């Protein structure tokens, strides 16, 4: 049968009766858009993250876009972020008309290197968007200190990090606002696309909610242009069933990561992820790095041949993407740590429910490929 990178079928089997009942209730009531399930999810996520407000929306990309649009970020503005993340982070910045500015990352955590942040700030900078990549929080205290001194908005891209903590507080409640994705492969995933915004700022939440509903708070009356970004009630119902299990699933991911750390410690030719002591990571992905893209290709090939799931994260850093480099006015920064990851960082299976024997099988294949 092999070992998948993520086993969503097993997750469904575990919760099948609850999920079927929850979705059946929505179907029977025919309340598909908005309604009590979406409101209940918003309240549950706000409570979970420790924020005053949550605004459900269509997906994590929209959540990022809506936060910045609600904050008035637009043309001629700059938003500082990381080059080592999924494209949606930079795409959302571009879609409000702002310019993404990239700073390099830390080795091992792959998070934004906060020590390089101040040098990237200009008079056009309006916000900082740290990404809690692979489920580990960025070192937020020094980042927030810089932002507060300069009067900059801080938006957490927490799309991969629901449940992760930083000094006792959960991701989503660490800055001015945060965006989460409920894409099926996320630690808390629905059965399609979905997203949510968390914030303590009532005005920002209200503006984001309005923008997500065609720029209106009263049907057929509009005083601004918005978009259509709604979380379906079916997805909210699914997420409400799954949310009570999230902390256990995240703990199982940490247990899997600890076994990999133990079994792969000291293995030549591979770098293991670094976990900072300031909080708990949730290991959306367990990412390892080889010394070259060729080395990663060799190991990944061996894993696939053995029926073991793996995937590259990421083949090319954002600041090297064609969408930026083809612009004749673009000055490509030198970001050596991010560039060293091109094609060399990939995921090993570390999903909830994976057992030690399966991890041992993965490690055996990895070590043989590196020998």
Output the keywords.
Aspartate Aminotransferase, domain 1, seven-stranded mixed beta sheet, alpha/beta, 12 helices, 371 residues, 39% helix, 13 strands, four-stranded antiparallel beta sheet, globular, Aspartate Aminotransferase, domain 2, 2 domains
Quickly give the CATH architecture of the largest domain.
3-Layer(aba) Sandwich
Give the overall shape.
Answer: globular
Contiguous runs where pLDDT drops below 50 for at least 5 residues: none
CATH class type of the largest domain: Alpha Beta
The proportion of residues forming helix, as a percent range, comes to 25-40%
Tell me the number of structural domains: 2
The amount of beta strand, in percent, is 5-15%
By secondary-structure content and strand pairing, the structural class works out as alpha/beta
Largest sheet: 7 strands, mixed
Helix-strand pattern = HHEHEHEEHEEEEEHHHEEHEHHEH
What gyration radius follows from the Cα positions, in whole Å? 21 Å
The DSSP helix count reads 12
What is the topology, as strand order, of the major beta sheet? Answer: 1-9-8-5-4-2-3
Mean pLDDT: 97
| Spatial separation of the terminal alpha carbons | 26 Å
